[in-house]
Amino acid sequence: MLKYSIRRLLGMIPMLILISVVVFSLAKLMPGDSLSGEIDPNNTNPEYIAEMREKLGYNDPLPVQYWNWITGFVQGDFGKSTKYKRPAFDVIMEKVPNTLFLGIMSLIITYILAFMMGMYSGRKPYTIGDNAIAGINYVMLAIPSFVAAVFAIYFFAFNLNWFPFGGSVDILVETGSAEYYLSRLHHVLLPALVLGAMSTASYTQFLRNDIIENSRKDFVRTARAKGTPMKKIYNVHILRNSIIPLVTFLGFDFAALIGGAIITETIFTYPGIGMLFLDSVTNRDYPTLMALTMLLSFLTLAGNLIADLLYGIVDPRIRLE
Amino acid sequence: MKKNKSLLWLFALILVLSAFLAACGGDDNGSSSDDSEKKEETETETESTAEGEPQTGGTLVYGIDAPPEGLFSSAFYGIATDAEVIALFDEPLIDYNENLEPVPNVASWETEDNKVFTFTFEEGVKWHNGEELTVNDWVFALETIADPDYDGPRYSNVQTIEGAEAFRNGEADTISGIEVVSDYEIKITFDEARVNNLTNLWAYPLPEAAMGDIPVAEMSASEFVITNPIGIGPFKVDKIVQGESVEFSKFEDYWNGDVNLDKIVLRVIDNSSVVGALQNNDVDMISLQPVSGPEVEPLENVEITTYPGLSYYYVGFKLGKFDSESQTITEENPKYQDKQLRQAMMYALNRQEWVDAFFFGYANVVNAPVPSSHWNAADNSELNTYEYDPEKAKTLLDEAGYVDQNGDGFREDPNGDEFVVKFSHYATGNPTFEARAQAITQYWEEVGLKTELEMVEVNLYYDMVEKDDPSIETFFGGWGTGADPDPSGLWKADQLWNYPRYNNPEADKLLDDALDIEIVGTDQDKRTDLYIEWQKIVNEEVPMLYIAELEEIVALNNRVGGVEYDVSGQNNPAEWFVTE
User: Which spans are transmembrane here (chain A) (predicted)?
Assistant: First the structure.
């Protein structure tokens, strides 16, 4: 397994280089640059903009710009964000905890809901309950997240006052105190619920179908013949087999956790990677944009590797060599 | 038993989720009327107190609708949102009154010739870190901005000081035009006498004791800009949560009078939540987008205040091509050279109707490119107001030779060739932009001008406008003007940002004269006359169709008092108070 992992990791390098070339060219092909949004006679003047273009190297040929960027990048210098005037790495790292927290919370919510609904549906397929769950799941999947977010804020935050309507923490509580962590949890719940509850469909349906399929298999019949209680058959024998396809999702989830949720983050003013990413695209903040893309590409590749390794753990029949 | 329990759980969950869905559709009327009744009771009490004597103590929640970039230093910030945050904890040496004329704040000045200025600082002004403000902090700010490593946009505000150029090129260790007389007195010499030397000068100090050791190139990423900014204002920054909130507390050693509030909490609130947050008393004051105005007006716990803004919208014509090397307009585009055509297109627009529809009444029609609150703005009585008059537009087009020759319902150009007006508007995520652009094209089609609309992604749009891309013919745009009302930077023929490429030496001469100290001296009336003369020309020639100037809209909770606005912005936050 170690050999396999190393081989896969080495295989990522050419892939990442290719991704960096493609993303860099695409970023530079976008019209305008980080200074074209700054046309404001109160604040700047054409001379400053021309000078900054020269300073930032935007007038160099593209291959030169790419070379300058990539040599810095491999040495760990991700460049300075043109928008925030700070190292892109710092800007990203500042948002990572928020995003991770929101991502993990919403994933937990998704998993809990999906497991409950999927297990129920799988045990009682084609009943009213099963159809109702499928119906709700697809409706949830179809509702755009901004609509859900706005209504969730209206209902839970403004009408019921259960949750704060935005932000990641109450600034008035002391950082590091128990109250602070409670406040963070309180702030993250509503966006996490919106994100988590809306995306249960694929997990639920995968789990359901797998449970149905496995329940017809020979080992189930054998277990039943031996007198094993149905509950044990479903919760142990079938479930363990049915989790395998979900592990594939986990690989993608890994990158999605960091990738953040652009719209939900914006509406809840929850400063995270999603907002930063969108921002870096609209402002042509190339260093941040490139650092984020590379980070997310790497995580997607790494996530897939982890998923592959997990297969072997969940199902010992699958051997990696 | 256990099985049943999990089933119960499931159904409870489904119920919750469906209740949430039902809430989306249904009974919001019932619940919100309950709410407003409750508020009415409290509101009657608070209004009487908020109008009365200032009270001390309390926390005010100040909302902004876009996240700041986090460059909280006067010398380094780049966007207006950051400036809004800075205004709460820092203040300039020189302020502006309601006529946008400079008035002394920390510093007062004397000059005889508009070339050499002597500034005298108040004594005992303290920075938030306890150091005393002296003229050296200002020198430090000016030298930072003039440093070749400085990465902010303010150099043009220092450039006019004698010797700044040499300092920047590394030929001198200090700026020769700056002479420190004492800790509280400084003499600044400009490279030449100008009428607007003072308004152009950079008038914010930087804390030298705190920031002096940081290399200029690293300053914008330093803690004194990002996490722990220091100012001289009535509130000091206690804590910053990047991208979402800032906590300010009263600065006990504030130099200019008492501070009423104990704390200000600044929060970023997304536009979709602004109305709800106002209604629930979750935010005390926030600037509104025009589109939120009609929703906020009916709220009884909130009052809307408007004050004149300093920006205007226009539809420009591309009249030529600009060469940025030689800084001249090199070519003329023939298509829109006919003045009567441009005037007809102006008469065809029902600007009032358009403004009411897309800015909900929070904007006023303008007839010249100077916002009406500037002291040099021409009165409408001196200008052609181009009242909506489609008949007049048609007559003008007929006179100019734009008539329908082939009977297709649209006019041809004087040579009989097909004539299509191409109108470009920028596109962002905002869905109203296309509607408002479409409305303009319809006005023109009504007088028989065939119009084609193109929506262009905003970054590409300004790139194309700036580079005189041939596909841009008429274009929508907006400008904000600052305290200095001089329009030279946006209008003279040698300026990159003169997007219509309007080239009229007579008009340029007026603008030059208005800044020439030999001609106008220090007499503001003389300058005003010249500017009005200039506005008459551009009003007559319409190189761009002036559409509207926006109003700034602020929503204030009834418990807030002491807040005043004029065209220069808000009053000193030290005077704000809240009633509990």
Answer: 9-27, 100-120, 132-157, 188-207, 243-268, 288-314
